[in-house]
Each structure stands twice: as structure tokens, then as C-alpha cells.
Amino acid sequence: MNEESEFDRICLLCAEPRVPSGMTKQGRFFCQTCQREWILEKRKVPRVGKNVLNSVEKTEFLLENLSLFNSALGLEDLMFRFSELISDRLNRDKIAIFITNLELGEIKLANYYSKQKHLQRAIKRITLDYDLSYGILIEAMAKREPCFYKFSDQTHPFYSFYSRLTGTKSQLVLPILYADIAVGMITIDYDEEDSLDYLEDEEILKIVVGQFAVSLRNSLLFFKSKNQSKHFRSLHTAALTLSQLYLNNHNEMIRMILLTLSGIVDLSISCLIEIPPNASKAKIFKVYRDIDNYELKTQTDSIDANKVSSFLNYREITTVDPSEDSNFETIGISGKESIIVPIQLENQTICIFILAKEESRFPHEEIEALNAFVSLARITMENSSLYQNLSNKERLEKEIEIAKEIQSNLLPRKTPEAEGFSFGGLMVPARGIGGDYYDFILSPNRNELFVCIGDVSGKGVAAGLVMATVRTILHSLVRVKDSPWEILNDINNYLYTSYKEAITPRFMSMILIRWNLISGEVDVSGAGHGSFYHYHESSKSLRSIETGGVILGISPDISPFKNESKLQFGSGDTILLFTDGVTEALNAKETQFGEEKLEQSFLTNIQLEPKKILENIYLDLKEFVKEKEQHDDITMVAVRKI
């Protein structure tokens, strides 16, 4: 046999004639040019598949999909447009998307795309049990790996039924993975048994299936809670907006804030009127969004301040009918309903957010999301003003003051009105900005109560932003999830994904308690926050409960640290939750306040109302530290069953 020359082997992926570095399993080679494993053929003339993409085409394809996935699409529209795009790119006629529901143990056909319209009509709904007896489809989902198979090799009757209906002889299956969990699968049907085109199709689909998984997950969340999926898609964008990226470009910062608002809810127009102190002119920033055609357009104008004077009368977030005020027409805003959100910056600049819907109204959930985001956006606007006008020292002091104010505004302003319970919450910020957080969240039907306490790593505005974002996520999740552990798991996914590559990663400890106010059942889950105290009125005894778990944001998978426990909460019982700023408070001798003194103070004041208990514990702590400077937030929560 003649010795092979350097140009005897051709890479089907990059079509470059190079000698591979070595043969691997199943006839695959490692191409030194494109750095991938692929099939190499001994040919004098390159044979390149019709679908193989070079690096430029891959980039264009990726951008095509990014524009699709960043759109606020409903589930059906998302799958149809994705199937259509893949069909055009791969030149394939039959593409199916299945969605898994692990809670129900089933896989449903959610979309079947074919230019043969009779097939689309014939295959409306197919449901498979999540059972390995179904064969290769379920195995691919369970193993979370792509596969190509022949229908003739499968024994389950589903495959013969599907083959007769569609003419399919073989199929490529790619699981859709979100956080390493299979949320669905994409299948490509082939009319031949031995099609080798699946290799190229698989390579191309791998470019975008991860992005599609994120969009599919978000669209599924939409059906569980109205508008929540769009809110989640915008959280990471909001985090970017509230960074220093745009502090030196004021106009770009405002446009990014308005674009992010458009992503949180379906707005036809998002607008900001900016009126500096003693100015005769107002600046108007607008983002127009064509929801049907998925188009965005930005516009910036200047107008006499007296022409928008009526908007200055609004002191709080308000929904209005644009047709009732001629000033809406003056600035080019119309629609069925608008929301006005006024804020005043530290430099006395008045900013008025005006958000409009063309044909619908704003539900309560959207108003909450918008209000929360505007609070976050204000931090960026204040920081931008400081960046432009103050010295480094003055800017830092103002930044701390602003962030502390906003941080305090994000804490509960009043305790919930839950029959049979009494509450107390106390937070004393340190001189620097911390990331302590506590909350009481009563469900809209008043059947469930969530109580939480947490501590973000580090200090400064960055920690405060993490705290504010986690608060928004938590308020969204309690509406769609019952289990405290599931909520902690989703918060961990957000923190790890958003900050794993940051210069300073962000972590957070938390205790989350859920009361079922109907049955009295209490569920507790912890995330590395330590212990809390439970006083039993019947036995006059105090118990320290260690919650366990792992700090959120450290690992992409916290399932090995899962902890769920039940709490027997009797009449007259009281619990006390606290952060390490309480027990680690130091006096002049560098001695910590410690858990022993905290327990003593708690028991001494146990007969008082929860709010008064916390106030007296804080007085005992202050007496202990005396004039020693406070270096960490002091946060406590008390709940009593009456």
C-alpha cells in the first residue's frame, strides 16, 4: 500500500487538507486546522457538505438567532420562528420540537414544522410518557446527549406509527438543556435510513441549541406566571444597565434603561422626560417598539419645559388614560393606558418615566416589576450624575448615601396583615453599603406567607445591586413555586450564571421559610446562612436550629446540599432570624457579642411583642459595643404565632 501524502485526507468540517493528529473512536479524527473531531476522507478533491458553515457564516447564523431569542415572543411564535429558521438553514422539511414536563412525567410535541401542510395538520398533539420503554427518544433525553437512529431498530409501536404518518426512516435528536436539565428536544426527520447529513445538521444545531434552551425555558415560565418570563429575560440586562458601563455616556445610559424596560413588559412606547433644575427645556428620550414586527426605534427630542408641566403634578406611580391629557399628544404618546413613574435625583433633576401600551392595560404583576426596575435604574442615574460632577471623595460619599436610601426602600415598609401572626423586622445599615436583606411576602390569596433573611458577600453598591435583584427574583418566584428549596435553587442559578466570570464573584446566604396559613404547615430551607432560634411557649425552652445548605452562587449545581425541613410552630411560639452582623459585633476589646448574649437577650424579652423584642436586643447590643464603630449591617426578624 502506498504511503499517504499530506493532502490525502480532507476535513469535512473546514475542508482544509491537513494530516490529522490521530484517529479516535468510530473513525473520527482530530483536525489541527479547525480544532474539532470530524470524519476525514481519503480524497484528492475536498467533499464539503452543503450545510457546513465557515467561521463567518457561523457568526452570522449566531446573530440571526440572537435577534430571535432576544425578542419577547410567546411560546408558539418562538418555536415556529426557530423551526422556520433551522429549516431554511439546513434545507430540511420536517422539524419537531418536544417539551418535557418532568412533574407530569411526559413529553409533548409542541411544534411540528413542515412545508407539507397536511403533515402539520395531521400531527397536532403527540404525548409520550417519560418512560425508557419508549426507546431511543427517552434515552436521549435521560442521557442528555444527541443521537441519530433508524426507526427500523426501534420496537415501540410509536416509531412505526410516526414513520407511516410522516415517511420518516431515521431521525436526529438533540436534547434542549437548561442548567443541565432536559427541558425538551429538537428532532430532524430524514427520509433515508443511512443519511450522513445528520453530522452536519448536528454541528450546526449545536451552535444555537443552548440559546434556544434559555428562550424556551423563559417562554415556559411565561405560562406559569403572567409576564414573569419576560421579566427574567431582562434581569441580566438590568444588571448590566446598573453597572459602570454607561456612566460616562449619559444618553446611551438612558436609552439602555428604556430598552430594558421594553423587555420587561410589552410596551409600545417607553419614554423618559428629563428636566434639570431651573431649566427652560426638557429632554425627551423615547423607544418605540413594534411588537408585531419585532422592531425597535429610538428618538431624542428637546421641548419647552412648560409644555410638559402637567406631568410634574404626579408624585407617585400612577396609571392614566393618555387621551385625558393633551400633553401626551404633545410628546407623541398614545395608547389605551400609560404608567407615569416620577423620580427626583439628588441634584434636583426631575425624571418622569412614561410607559404606554397600545391595546391593553398593565396588570398588577407588571406594575410591580416596572416599579422595582425603576428603583434599580435610579441608582445608575444617580451614579452617572456623581461620575460627571463630583470629585472622587464626594462621589463615594454620595454613592453610599444614595445606595443606603434605596436599599432601605427595598425592605418591607410594613409588616403583613396575616391573621394569627405578629411580626417584627429591624435592619441598621453599617457606614458602608451592605447586602443584608429580609422580607415578608404574603401571597395574593393570603393563603401563604414567605419569610426570609439573607446576606450578600461584600459591601458597596455592587452588593446592594445583587440584593435588589435577588429581591425582585424572589418576589417573582413565590408566585409560581411552592417549595423554598426550588426558589433557592433558581436564585443560585441566576447568581452563578451572572457572576461566575466577574472580577469579584457575588455570593449570598439565605434562610427561606414558607407558612401555609390554611394547614399551618411550615417548610424551611437554608443556603449556608447558619442557624435561627425557635422559642417553644409550651415548654418555655429555646432551640437553635441549624439550616445547613450551601451559599448561593458558588456552584452551578447545589442539589447535593438540598435541605428541606418541617417546623412545628405552636401557639405562642416565636422564631428569631439574624445575620452575622449581630453575633459578630465587636466592642473596644475586640470581643464579639456572640450567640450566648443574643440568646440571653432574646429570652429576657420573650414576653414582649416581636417588634419590641428586636428593639431591646439592639439596645443590649449597643450597650455591649458602646462607641465601637459598626462595620456590618445588623439585621433581625421575629415572628410569633398568636
From TrEMBL:
Q: Name one GO molecular function term.
A: phosphatase activity
* Record-annotated GAF domain positions: 74-226
The organism's place on the tree of life at top rank: Bacteria
Keywords per UniProt: Hydrolase
**Record field: transmembrane:** none
- Where the record annotates domain PPM-type phosphatase, the positions are 418-641
- InterPro entries cross-referenced by the UniProt entry: Bact_Sigma-Reg (IPR052016), GAF (IPR003018), GAF-like_dom_sf (IPR029016), PPM-type-like_dom_sf (IPR036457), PPM-type_phosphatase-like_dom (IPR001932)
One Pfam family from the record: SpoIIE
Protein name per the record: Serine/threonine protein phosphatase
The major lineage groups are:
Bacteria, Pseudomonadati, Spirochaetota, Spirochaetia, Leptospirales
